[in-house]
Design a protein that fits this description.
homodimer; globular; TIM Barrel; alpha/beta; 3-stranded antiparallel beta sheet; 16 helices; about 375 residues; about 20% strand
Chain lengths: ~375, ~375
Amino acid sequence: MKFQFDISARDGCARSGRISTPRGEICTPAFMPVGTAATVKAMLPESVRATGADILLGNTYHLMLRPTAERIAALGGLHKFMNWDRPILTDSGGFQVMSLASLRKLTEEGVQFSSHIDGSKHVLTPERSMEIQKLLGSDIVMCFDECPALPADRTTIAASMELSMRWAQRSRDAFGDRPGHALFGIQQGGLEPDLRAASAEKLRAVGFDGYAIGGLAVGEGQAAMFGVLDYAPGQLPEDKPRYLMGVGKPDDIVGAVARGVDMFDCVLPSRSGRTGQGWTARGAVNLRNARHRDDPRPLEEGCDCPACRSYSRAYLHHVIKSDEIIGSMLLTWHNLAYYQSLMAGLRAAIAGGRLGAHIAAFHATRALGDIEPL
Amino acid sequence: MKFQFDISARDGCARSGRISTPRGEICTPAFMPVGTAATVKAMLPESVRATGADILLGNTYHLMLRPTAERIAALGGLHKFMNWDRPILTDSGGFQVMSLASLRKLTEEGVQFSSHIDGSKHVLTPERSMEIQKLLGSDIVMCFDECPALPADRTTIAASMELSMRWAQRSRDAFGDRPGHALFGIQQGGLEPDLRAASAEKLRAVGFDGYAIGGLAVGEGQAAMFGVLDYAPGQLPEDKPRYLMGVGKPDDIVGAVARGVDMFDCVLPSRSGRTGQGWTARGAVNLRNARHRDDPRPLEEGCDCPACRSYSRAYLHHVIKSDEIIGSMLLTWHNLAYYQSLMAGLRAAIAGGRLGAHIAAFHATRALGDIEPL
């Protein structure tokens, strides 16, 4: 079976459709929960699936260090290792080498670095990243790229983009022909329209199964990000999935979908679930706040996740304040379920040709703020 | 519906049967997972039930401090609060005041102490303990007792036992008549047969729905504990459940069941699940050990818990070494499932009149040690 992307509906720049892979379909626009170290933290994979997730993201950087890609391959691949038989997208390791590793040395060849876990020395190149992602058994493989820290001057961003484009070609060459597996290119170019255009042109010349918009959500702010998204998706092929890496908050996702993005990943719903923050249609709720301690109401009325179906805000407040693991389990579950319902709502609105009204209602509901205190 | 205990089979001193309560039946011999702060750590209650648990234990000391018994009562009681609709046994708070609180002052009236959480001052008396356990909605209420730290001289143990027996009468008086709810007395007397006999006599004179054997599993060692269990159960009423508090390791439980004990609780399976220790028929397995890191085999062959059904030892090793929450979730689930299967095996052996052979096989299997390294 081939990797394939079919757009079934459009509304303005937004599209809804599905990605078909041998491991299952991915309804788009899609949100991918992050399973950094072969687990979506505080969740069993069957629970992640129950929230509606079609695909997970795994992190090459973390997995290559521990337990190592070779070990996972010997154990039958990442899907079997972590008990998730649906599609997995792996990043290239490039971004996290820059954000987590120490003693980095960047050359034309690749990046040398020391592990943040034990200081051991490693090298990542486009070829090694492709090899690792193949060992993991990733369904959607990302090109190895370099993402400069912002703010950076135009010369730096241009040079970095050019390097990433040479690495994109090397990634494509190293990936080879793997039916049923996809390779995505990553557009760079910072906040510069002409650099973004040049990057897109080079990627199109190489040819990929999908295209990520990289180098955003790194501190530039939503207005600047939306500024890039006003033109960047249109620079990429119309008939391939577009993936905005590392995004984001619900309103980031809504704005990006309206601008033509099909795929997202972010640690936010799972990470904030471990710190007592619940995401609802009416915004973020800090369950550590004492106003919840006597509140018999669910976190979100009408949500059918286990946290909302079976527990009060008072209980969630209690277990979070008590540092009980069930607090992380329940809030992560709710947050992932909220994100998936957000995506399902966007897909239905696009299919129904009513995305504008849907987004207006999304913002109006958020403007209400959390339910009134008791 | 009344609280009722029916013995359906005997084998030597051992008994199997069931406790009936308005919230459900408890097959005995029973193991009660500990849900200290209104959660069995790292488990959803439906998962605890799936392991085969008929009843949970809640800790009065923890719950009275946070979120408070009054708050839980206002929210509909502990069952509703923590989403567990089957029976709950609560301890009296006495033991944990002694082991966790600071600035304790013991008088005939009760115990003053400071919270280990925030230093706030509290008082526990037999009457207040009964009130708290009623507010929680406990199905099986424990008398408020004093448990002296061992080693202690005979005079100290005798005085402590006498005090606990006066408190047992006050607990009985304060408990009143609550159909469908049970009150258990607690035998004390350390390792002294005559003090144990005196304690049992006083408890029988008051009259309880069940009888705990207290003051054991506090560092005296298995041989000394079994020494007491050789006579203590026989000092208690034959037709009421006998509960050995805070016990224990699998071989402790097996030895106590053979000596006529019907109920157990212990944090061991859940606590050790959070530190990478798995309990199996072949003994304890430390999954942090590097020998597991390439091992594709399940923790325990033939176990149908999620950890054994869907994951390798290599995966469990990886997530435990990586401090991932799923490691605690999976190992706690396995350990609670193992404990429940241990109890089910004992019940079946008693019912079949083959407990001796069953225990011999239990020890023979443990003597094999863990499976051979790869």
